[in-house]
Structures are given as C-alpha cells and as structure tokens.
From TrEMBL:
The protein's name in its UniProt record: FXL18 protein
Gene Ontology CC: SCF ubiquitin ligase complex
InterPro entries noted in UniProt: F-box-like_dom_sf, F-box_dom, FBXL18_F-box, FBXL18_LRR, LRR_dom_sf
GO biological process annotation, one example: SCF-dependent proteasomal ubiquitin-dependent protein catabolic process
UniProt domain F-box: residue ranges: 19-66
Taxonomic superkingdom: Eukaryota
Length: 711
C-alpha cells in the first residue's frame, strides 16, 4: 500500500517468514518509515488500512509539515480532501511549483487556520483569491507567492493586510513590474525577490519598468535582516529592482546581515546604489554578500565592508584578484572559519596575485588557493567554474591536491582544465586500438559494444596516480559535482535565439576524458552530476562505472562530450542508464544526438525518472520510441526535446503525448520544438519556472544561493 526503502522491504519479508510483521515494529520505527511516504498517500490511503496506521498517520510529526511541491500525482480533489481531513493540523504547507493545479485549489488552504509558513511560488493565485485566503490565516509569518500581470494590491482586504503586516518572511517572484505585497508587510525581516519580467509582451511591445498606477506605497525595511534579489536577463528587471533598492539607500536597516543581488550581464552602479553601499560599510556587519560585478570591479568597497561571521560569499563573474580576495575578504585567514559556501564562478583572476597584466590562461598562484583552503576549512559548497585555473608543475601544489584538504565539501564545481595532470596536458591524448576514431568516418552501430569493458583494468594504474583520482577519493561524501569546460556555453541561452557555434575547449582540457570520468565513480553518495565539454571522451566507459557505483544518483546532466560530429559515448550511456534506478532528472545536450528506440529502451530502466530534457542541434528522434518510453515510464511528467526535426514532426509528437498521457499525469509538461526555430524564445516563456530553472536551462548551480535560503 505504500513504498518503503528497498532495504526495509527486504528485511520486512525476511522478518515475516520468521513470524514477525511490520505492525510489530515500535511506533518510533513506523513513524520514521512513514515519514518517507507523501502526505497525500498517508492521509488518503495508508491510514485506511488498519487502526494502528490510522492513528500513526495523523501523528503531529507527519502532519505538522506538508510538502506537495514535487508530488506530481496530486490533483485538486486530493488537495481538497487533504485539507478537509488534516487542515487544522498543518502548520507548514509547501505547494511551490504546483503549476498544474487550478487557481480554485487555493481556496481550500483557508481550512489551515494554524498555518505559520506557506509557499505558493509557481501557483496560480489572483489578487482576490490571495486576499480571501490570507484574511483567514492570522498566524501566518512566512509567505511565498508569484505576482503576475493583472495583480492589483487595491483588491486586498483590510483583514488580508492585517495578516501581511505580521509576516516576517516574504518570497516574491515578479512577472510584472510591481511592489506586490511588500508595502503591506511592515514587519519584514527576510525579503527574497525573483525578477522574471520580460522586456517584451507576447505582442512584441516593449515593456516599461515603471510601477503600475496606485503602487507608490513605500516598502518597510526597518526590521530587515536578509535582502536577496535574483534578476533574469533584461533591462526591465534592473529598472524595477532599483525601485526596491531606493528605500534602502535612504536608510539602511541596522540589523541587516545578508545583502545579496544576483544579476546577469551588466548592471551599472548608480548614485543611489553607491549611497546604499557606503551606508552599509558604515553601519552594518554582514554574514552574507553577493553584488553585481560592476559594483565590485575597480572599487575599494570590499576594503570598507565589515563582516561578522560570514557563511556565504559570491563574487561570480567579478574581476577580483586573488591578492584582493586574501587581503580584503579572507583577512589573513582570521575570520573565515564560519564560511560554508563560496561562489567564485567566472572570477577568472581570483587565484592570481593581481589581474592587471595577467592573461586568463596563465597558471594560478597555488599559495593563494592554499590560503583560501586553510582559512575556509569548513567549506561545504565551492564553485570555481567558468575560469581557466591552470596548475603549475610544482609538486604538491596542484589545485586538486589543495582542494582535497576540504573534507567537509558537499558540492563542488570545477572547470575541466583545472583537473588535468600538468604532465598529461602537454602529452598527446591517449589512444586505444579499439576506440572510436575521432573522425567523420563510418557510423557506429549502436547495438554493438564499442568500448573495451576492461578499460578500467588497463588504465587502472594511471588513473589511480592522477591528482583528480586522488581528489575524488578524498571527497567521499560529496553529493554534487560539476565539471564544466571553461569556454562552454549552452545552445539554449535564455531570452535569446539558440547558439549555433560553440567555442573550442581549453588546450589544457584536451587530455580530460574517460579515465577522469571513471574517477568520479568513487563518490558513493553522489546525487547530482554535471559534465560539460570534456573533449577527450572516446567511448564514455567511465559513465558505466558511475552507473554501477553511484547508486544514489538522482540528477545527471551531460553536454558536449567528446567529438561534436557524432555521439561516441552512446553505447556506454545506454549501459549506464540500466543501473540508474534512482535517477529522476536527465539532461542531455549533444549535437547529432539520435533519440531512437535503443536509447529509449535503455532509458526505460530508469524507473524513477521524472524529467527528461534533450537539446541537440541537428539531432533526431523516433516518435514511436518516445511514445513507447512514455507509456513504460509512468513517473515521467516532463519531456522537453529541442532537436533538428521539422516543426510538423515536433508538434505532432507533442500533441500525441499530451493526448495520450495528460489525463493520467496532471503535472505533465511536454515541449518538443526545433532548436533553431525563430519562435523558440516564445515557447520557452511558457515553460513552468520550476522546470526551466532546475533542468531545461543549463547553468552551474553549486553555491548559486546561500544554503537554506528558503525551505
């Protein structure tokens, strides 16, 4: 009647053969087991099986917090029944990303009179519905909502505004220029803002960053402790966020300890923002900091800011040199023991003493990295991607050797060129007689093994002596790993046409291939893996090792591996997928990828798969194979394919999938579209933000935000 971890099921069967059944376990053990079951199943199904489970399923430990955010099988009727049965027992409700539920579903939340935390990000909520719901939630202290076109703050009732006045935590995603409910929240301590406003309407008209009429109310920031703003590309988002910042520049909250603005591209500093930063330097001590690169580059800001016990820093895409990093941020290693998350993505000079006369490809200064490792010894999340971090030939000073001292790391992002052995980078890439040649020769038959199964034995001695192999061996508890080419760019940038040409990989990365991928298989607890632009992938044999050894793998993203003319690792990938029983998200980006019957047959072994995204310039797909895959993999609720097929083929397949499976899978989201079509950006804008942000768009996600920013 419900699913248990495999090891528990096997133990239960063994115990039953000896006369002991599940119901004889203690209540504490049963409650722990039941905590893995979705709340909708507990309340609507499991508790109806027997009296004991009927009591346990309503235990406060199971009903206090209800998480529906990735319960893709939940529908309006289930939510209605759930709220009717346990609404008064729910104190925290997370419905984030439930885009498939009709807006009327929100009406049932009014039964949860004791709600303290509510997350409705990604849900359809009108101003009137929001007003009606919040009017009944007098105990609410934490709220997350979307502000869509048509939102009208004047429709909020006085009872609703009274509830908002007590809210101390607000997460607001804006799809239209607006203050949303911020002016009503007079007790704000944490404010998270996500700006997703497009520069053009669907009709092609340019939008303005000016707020709607009647939205001149001023936000209340006097109690603010955390301010976070993440901007999608576009000038309108920049205009609107400046309106939010204007109030901060007049008077900086005394208790502010986290100030974070994530802005892509160029976001120029103005007089108001400069006044804000000067005020922060005088009046506050920060624990978390992230600023647009233009606000840091060339300024002495970091020298004047004061830090208390910092836990998060992001200097992504800044020209900050290693010398400034050590002197102005690390402060000689005295104050950074508390730092748990550091994002230096795209910070090309952060491991060099100065940046004035340095080329981005020059060797790093290992002493700077060593100071960083010693000072930040408790780091759990580190991002060094999107830069050329080349180690010198000095023995013991390789980047991988220094990073191996960070024993607490849970997530790590590195450029491909940083993991190569210095000696190997100047040698020719290794060749093996049985490997696929790197030419546009005869096509390889997919069904026949094209890589040597004993490659690991042949290269074992060389692999285990490499610095990257040693690094993977020292980070046994790593959960997230990203190895991304320093010049890699996805074929699907946001709000722009697809990129047709990609930059060549770094010369130092030319030797990185199958043996380095095989080294990753040492990470027994790995849950998320991203590999992009590894040029020396010849067969993909290391992928099979990962499939066999990394049994906790849930998310896999592969992009531009090996030669670009053909998919040389297809056989190994199919072998790998047969072992990935826990895989939920798969993203593949590779030119000329053939999504045929054998690929989807192998993918069908991934019984837990929920989301699939394929991005392939000149790629092909087999419609019958896709339909068969969707029929066999009942958990799949997202299928995105951007390939080289015609618009007619794509539309017909998309309609067939929706027509066949939408009724059984309410959360089903299908987008099949030609990658190079001029209307791609219009199609992308309709993709639910949850899928777009988490899988469809390629990006580095390590240390992207402070840990535990929201629940």
């Amino acid at each position: 009647f419900f699913f248990l971890p495999q090891e528990v099921v096997s133990e239960e069967s063994e115990e039953e053969s000896n006369g002991v059944n599940l119901m004889e376990f203690s209540d504490e053990i049963l409650l722990h087991i039941l905590s893995y079951v979705p709340c909708t199943d507990l309340v609507l199904n499991v508790r109806r099986t027997c009296r004991k489970l009927a009591t346990l399923c309503l235990d406060k430990s199971l009903t206090h917090t209800v998480l529906l955010q990735k319960d893709y099988k939940v529908n309006k009727d289930k939510v209605k029944q759930l709220m009717r049965d346990i609404g008064k027992e729910i104190y925290q409700l997370n419905m984030a990303g439930c885009y498939w539920l009709p807006s009327s579903t929100i009406d049932h939340v009014t039964r949860c009179k004791n709600l303290v935390k509510l997350n409705l990000s990604g849900c359809h909520v009108t101003s009137l519905r929001l007003s009606k719901m919040l009017s009944t939630l007098q105990h609410l202290r934490s709220l997350a909502i979307d502000v869509n076109p048509g939102f009208d703050a004047s429709q909020l009732s006085s009872e609703c505004k009274a509830t908002l006045s007590r809210v101390s935590e607000l997460k607001q995603t804006l799809y239209t220029p607006s203050y949303g409910v911020v002016p009503c929240c007079t007790s704000l301590e944490k404010l998270l803002l996500y700006f997703e406003i497009l520069d053009r309407s669907r009709e092609g008209f340019m939008l303005s960053g000016q707020l709607m009429v009647g939205e001149s109310n001023v936000p209340h920031y006097q109690n603010l402790r955390i301010f976070y703003a993440r901007l999608a590309p576009g000038y309108v988002n920049q205009e609107v966020v400046r309106l939010y910042l204007a109030v901060l520049s007049d008077r900086t909250p005394e208790n502010l300890h986290a100030f974070l603005i994530s802005a892509p591209g160029s976001f120029a500093e103005t007089g108001a923002t400069k006044n804000l930063l000067d005020s922060m330097a005088r009046n506050v001590r920060l624990d978390a900091l992230q600023l647009p690169k233009a606000w840091i580059n060339g300024s002495g800001l970091l020298q004047h800011l004061k830090f208390n016990n910092p836990f998060y820093f992001s200097f992504s895409r800044c020209t900050l040199s290693g010398g400034h990093l050590i002197q102005r941020v690390i402060n000689g290693g005295k104050d950074l023991k508390s730092l748990t998350s550091l994002n230096l993505s795209g910070c090309v000079h952060c491991l060099a003493p100065e940046s004035l006369f340095r080329k981005a490809e020059d060797d790093i200064d290992s002493s700077i990295l060593e100071s960083l490792v010693v000072s930040c010894c408790n780091l759990r999340h580190l991002n060094l991607s999107a830069a050329h971090h080349h180690s010198s030939e000095s023995i013991g000073n390789h980047l991988c050797q220094l990073l191996s001292r960070l024993k607490h790391l849970l997530s790590l992002a590195l450029p491909v060129c940083s993991i190569t052995d210095v000696a190997a980078s100047v040698e020719k890439p290794p060749t093996t007689p049985n490997l696929v040649p790197q030419t546009f020769g005869r096509k390889v038959r997919i069904g026949i093994q094209t890589y040597p199964r004993n490659l690991g034995d042949e290269a074992n001695q060389k692999m285990e002596s490499s610095v990257f192999w040693a690094l993977m061996g020292s980070l046994r508890f790593l959960e997230t790993l990203e190895i991304i080419g320093s010049s890699f760019s996805s074929a699907m940038p946001r709000n722009e046409p697809a990129i047709r040409n990609s930059l060549p990989p770094c010369v130092r990365a030319q030797s990185v291939g199958d043996s380095e991928v095989a080294a990753i298989s040492q990470l027994t607890y790995l849950q998320s893996l991203t590999l992009a632009q590894l040029p020396n992938i010849l067969t993909g044999s290391g992928l099979v090792n990962i499939g066999l050894q990394c049994q906790h793998l849930r998310t896999l993203s592969l992009a531009n591996l090996g030669m670009m003319g053909k998919v040389v690792y297809m056989s190994a990938l199919m072998d790998m997928l047969k072992h990935c029983k826990c895989l939920r998200d798969l993203r593949l980006e590779q030119p000329y990828f053939c999504a045929g019957a054998q690929f989807f047959q192998a993918l069908s072994h991934c019984s837990s798969l929920q989301r699939l995204c394929i991005v392939s310039r000149s790629g092909t797909l087999q419609s019958d194979a896709v339909m068969s895959f969707m029929a066999n993999c009942l958990e799949v609720i997202m299928c995105h394919m951007f390939v080289g097929e015609s618009l007619t083929v794509c539309k017909n397949l998309q309609q067939s999938i929706v027509r066949s499976f939408q009724a059984e899978r309410p959360a089903l989201n299908v987008v099949i579209f030609p990658l190079l079509h001029e209307d791609l950006t219009e199609v992308i804008r309709d993709v639910p933000m949850r899928h777009l942000d988490e899988i469809t768009l390629f990006k580095s996600r390590v240390a992207e935000e402070p840990p535990n920013l929201w629940w």
